[in-house]
Q: What sequence folds into this?
DNA sequence: TTTTTCGTGATACGACCGTACCATGATGTT
DNA sequence: AACATCATGGTACGGTCGTATCACGAAAAA
């Protein structure tokens, strides 16, 4: 047998090319030839590793969420070891804002996929219910933990606030994308609500 | 000169056809032939009244926002004459949720246009800054009025809360669209925040 | 009544898209 | 050494898309 290339790695390379070019020109405008050119391979290769465009797009979505998960993890790690619930929540929310080029691409493409999935049934399979639900559950758990630990107002409704925070981050992310809002103002709004939810940390009375 | 047709009316008819078919199959999937068929006219006619597809899309966006404004106005009118600030805010927010077919189309298409405008510069001209800003200003004004009238907690930050409410409505609207959330749960979250912002009306002690 | 101009139709053109087909090195296996 | 098979390139095909072109009836203006 011949060269025996790692198919999964190749697919990842091509998927990243897809993400790059889609982040530049929009998901709707990207064709298989564009992806091939961006990845530096022939059109045939893209066809070889993903038989159809639909499969390429689907794999691209999976790759996108994987990379986003990694991004969130990195932000959490950067928040230091064993960060408090508030720092964790903050890292989670800020990671989803398009404050840098990577975040911009993530937000743009994830929104594009979401809108696409509304009308193009095949995309609507699962990932658009699973991932947001996971984030919502994680955030809810964090708020519950904080409340039980006395770090948050006892009257907060964890799930409702979790949903609210995620929704605000998502929509303000789009506002940033279209140039209506600055990242700073979005962060300020989020901080406002975090200050409302979390009681001032009683660690070190100054 | 010949038949002298009202161009503006024709354009509106075609634009509504565009909105209908785009609401069904997605904005990215709609072609000029689809619009022509939906409007019951020939392809040539669509070309005649909108020379290019870009102009058709642009006019479609204008028409969409006009119809949405009318929808909000109708909701406000339905809230009775001289409704209080809270009822007005509620009507505004609920009108933007995709709870019926019309709202679904509005939300889907407006989101599509927004995402499109990120990469397709020509669309990014103005309307995506102006309209959201107007809504934000209107809501801010209502919250200020309520606060000054003693209907809202004096500690509320009108602009921040306005931004928050609009963002939550927008993002939860998308959640409804993709089937992740029910309209009822979205409305419940909004009510939660309205209850937080507005003090119980002291009109009629029961 | 002639003429000009508007509204409308049918159709053609060039470009691009996703996909399919054919060919050919390279590399393991026998 | 011969062969089977994987990886890759080149290219062609059918379809669709936005746009342009040609043609014609109808009605207001002369």
A:
């Amino acid at each position: 047998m011949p060269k025996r290339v790692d198919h999964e790695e190749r697919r990842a390379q091509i998927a990243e090319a897809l993400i790059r070019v889609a982040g530049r020109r929009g998901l709707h405008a990207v064709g298989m030839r564009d992806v091939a050119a961006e990845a530096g391979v022939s059109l045939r290769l893209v066809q070889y590793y993903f038989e159809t465009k639909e499969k390429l797009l689907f794999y691209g979505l999976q790759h996108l969420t994987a990379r986003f998960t990694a991004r969130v993890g990195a932000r959490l790690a950067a928040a230091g070891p064993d960060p408090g619930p508030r720092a964790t929540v903050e890292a989670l929310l800020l990671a989803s804002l398009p404050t840098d080029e990577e975040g911009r691409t993530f937000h743009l493409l994830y929104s594009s996929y979401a809108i696409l999935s509304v009308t193009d049934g095949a995309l609507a399979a699962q990932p658009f219910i699973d991932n947001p639900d996971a984030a919502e559950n994680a955030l809810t758990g964090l708020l519950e933990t904080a409340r039980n630990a006395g770090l948050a107002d006892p009257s907060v409704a964890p799930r409702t606030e979790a949903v609210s925070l995620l929704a605000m981050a998502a929509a303000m992310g789009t506002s940033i994308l279209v140039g209506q809002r600055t990242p700073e103002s979005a962060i300020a709004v989020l901080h406002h609500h975090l200050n409302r939810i979390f009681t001032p940390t009683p660690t070190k009375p100054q």
